Automatic annotation (TrEMBL):
Keywords, sorted A to Z: Membrane, Transmembrane, Transmembrane helix, Transport
Protein name as annotated: Transporter
Organism: Anaerovibrio lipolyticus
SUPFAM superfamilies per record: SNF-like
CDD domains linked: SLC6sbd_Tyt1-Like
Length: 464
C-alpha cells in the first residue's frame, strides 16, 4: 500500500476543494434556480444557508477526513464502528455519479469543439442536442475522452495530479468566468417585436429580491432549492471532502481553509449567475430563463451565442472551455473519492485503484450514453417527472442517498460521538473556531431537521 500523500499547502487544498465545488451544478443549476426562485431572494437564503447549514456539513467532512487519514469508505468506521454503513454509502454515491458525469463531460467536449471548429451555427439549431445524445457512437467517444483525461490526472497523484492541475485550471476558470460575465452585462439586443433588453436588465432580475406573492409554501420551496444546491456547490455528502480532507496536513489551518472554500464557491456560483442570466434574458427574455439543466447549457445558451454574431463565436469558445475546466475539476474529485476508498480498504496502489474505477465508470458510462437510444425507456420518478438511465442514477444519488448520508452524519457526530470530536480537530493547532456554537446548533438540531425536509421533498413524499 502506498503511503498517504498530503497537499503541498493550504492554498493547493483550497483550490482543489474549490475546483471540486465549482462544477456543472454551479454553472447550469445555480443560475436556473436563482431565476426561478425570485433572484435576490434565492441569493439571500442561499448565502445564509451557506454560512450555517453548508458550513456545518463542509467542516464535518473535512475534519473526518483529516482526523482519520482515510477515504470515505473507511473513514466513518474510524470515527464510530457501528456507523460504518455511512462509509459504504459515501463511496457508493460518487461511484454512481462518475459514469453519468463523464457522459455530460463528453457533451461539453462536443460543444467546445463545435464552437472551435466553426460549427456553432449548427449547434444552435433546434434538434442538434437531441440528435447528438441519441446517436449511438459519437457520445461514447466523447465520454471516453473525458474519462481518460480525469483518470490521467488521478494517476499522477495528489500533488502532481490533483493539486497541480487545480493550480492551473482554477485561476484560468475564474479569469474566463469574470471576462464572460463582464461581456454579458455590456450587451444589448432588440428583438423582432422592437423590445430592447440589456444585460443590466437581466442583472437586476438576478440581484433584486422579488417578494411579490411570497407565501410560506413558496418560501419553503426556495429554502429546499437552496439546500439542494449546497450539496452540489460544496461537494458535500459525496465522500469528496472526506477524501480531500484526508490529504490535508495536520499543520494546516483547517478553519481558514473552510472559510476560503466557502468564499470561492460563493464567488463562482454568483459569477455563473451573473454570466448566464443577463445573457439569456437579453436575447430570449424571461421565457428563456425557464430552461434548466441540459436545456439551459446545450440548447438555450448556444442560441444566445449564435445571436451575438461574430463575438458569439469567441464567447461560446470561452464559455465551453470554462465549463470543461469546471467539469474536469469536479469529475476528478468525484473519481478520487472512490479511488482513495479502494486504496484504503483493499490496500492497493493508486494505479490499480484508478484503473478499477476507470473500468467501472466506463462500463456504466456506456450504459448511460446508450440510455438515449439502445436502452431508452421512460421511468416515472416520485418527483412527478419521467427519466432515462441518467435521470434515474441522478435521482438515486442526489435525491435519496445524499440526504440520507447527511442526516446520518449529523446524528453520528451530533448525538453519538459528540461535536467536540470535530471541534478538537479544527482547533488542534490552536486555531480559533469562531463559529463553534453555530456548528453545534446546526449539527445537532437545525441541520437534521432541514435535511429531513429536503429528503421528503426531493423524494416526492411532500410538495410545497
Amino acid at each position: 500500500m502506498e503511503s498517504r500523500k498530503s497537499f503541498g499547502g493550504s492554498f493547493g487544498f483550497v483550490l482543489a476543494a474549490a475546483g471540486s465545488a465549482v462544477g456543472l451544478g454551479n454553472i447550469w443549476r445555480f443560475p436556473y434556480l436563482a431565476a426561478k426562485d425570485g433572484g435576490g431572494l434565492f441569493l439571500l437564503i442561499y448565502l445564509i444557508l451557506l454560512l450555517t447549514f453548508g458550513f456545518a456539513l463542509l467542516t464535518t467532512e473535512i475534519a473526518i477526513g483529516r482526523k482519520t487519514k482515510q477515504g470515505p469508505l473507511t473513514a466513518y468506521s474510524r470515527i464510530c464502528k457501528k456507523w460504518r454503513w455511512l462509509g459504504l454509502l459515501a463511496c457508493l454515491i460518487p461511484a454512481i455519479i462518475m459514469p453519468y458525469y463523464s457522459a455530460i463531460g463528453g457533451w461539453v467536449i462536443k460543444y467546445f469543439l463545435a464552437f472551435t471548429t466553426g460549427s456553432y451555427v449548427e449547434a444552435a439549431q433546434d434538434g442538434y442536442f437531441v440528435g447528438f445524445i441519441t446517436a449511438q457512437h459519437e457520445p461514447l467517444v466523447y465520454m471516453f475522452l473525458f474519462l481518460m483525461a480525469c483518470t490521467a490526472i488521478i494517476l499522477l497523484g495528489v500533488n502532481k495530479g490533483i493539486e497541480a492541475s487545480s493550480k492551473i485550471i482554477m485561476p484560468a476558470l475564474i479569469i474566463l468566468i469574470i471576462a464572460i460575465a463582464i461581456y454579458s452585462l455590456a450587451i444589448t439586443h432588440t428583438d423582432a417585436n422592437g423590445v430592447t433588453r440589456s444585460g443590466m436588465d437581466g442583472l437586476l432580475i438576478y440581484l433584486i429580491p422579488n417578494f411579490e406573492g411570497l407565501t410560506f409554501s413558496h418560501f419553503m420551496s426556495v429554502l429546499v432549492d437552496a439546500m439542494g444546491q449546497l450539496f452540489f456547490s460544496l461537494s458535500v455528502a459525496m465522500g469528496i471532502m472526506v477524501a480531500y480532507g484526508s490529504y490535508v496536513s495536520d499543520k494546516a489551518d483547517a478553519v481558514a481553509s473552510v472559510n476560503r472554500i466557502e468564499f470561492f464557491d460563493t464567488l463562482v456560483s454568483f459569477l455563473a449567475g451573473m454570466l448566464i442570466i443577463p445573457a439569456v434574458f437579453t436575447f430570449m427574455g424571461s421565457e428563456g430563463l425557464s430552461a434548466s439543466g441540459p436545456g439551459l447549457m446545450f440548447i438555450s445558451l448556444p442560441k444566445v451565442f449564435e445571436s451575438m454574431g461574430t463575438a458569439g463565436i469567441i464567447v461560446g469558445i470561452m464559455f465551453f472551455l470554462m465549463v470543461l475546466f469546471a467539469a474536469v475539476t469536479s469529475a476528478v474529485s468525484i473519481m478520487e473519492a472512490v479511488v482513495s476508498s479502494f486504496m484504503d480498504y483493499f490496500h492497493i496502489t493508486r494505479v490499480k485503484a484508478a484503473l478499477a474505477e476507470f473500468a467501472i465508470a466506463l462500463v456504466f458510462g456506456t450504459i448511460v450514453c446508450l440510455g438515449y437510444n439502445v436502452f431508452y425507456f421512460e421511468l416515472p420518478l416520485p418527483t412527478g417527472s419521467t427519466g432515462q438511465v441518467l435521470d434515474v442514477m441522478d435521482y438515486i444519488s442526489n435525491s435519496i442517498f445524499m440526504p440520507i448520508i447527511s442526516i446520518g452524519t449529523c446524528i453520528m457526530i451530533g448525538w453519538v460521538v459528540g461535536p467536540q470530536v470535530i471541534i478538537d480537530e479544527m482547533e488542534k493547532n490552536g486555531e480559533t473556531f469562531s463559529r463553534k456554537y453555530i456548528y453545534i446548533a446546526m449539527i445537532k438540531f437545525i441541520a437534521p431537521v432541514l435535511l429531513f425536509i429536503l429528503f421528503l421533498k426531493s423524494s416526492g413524499m411532500i410538495s410545497f
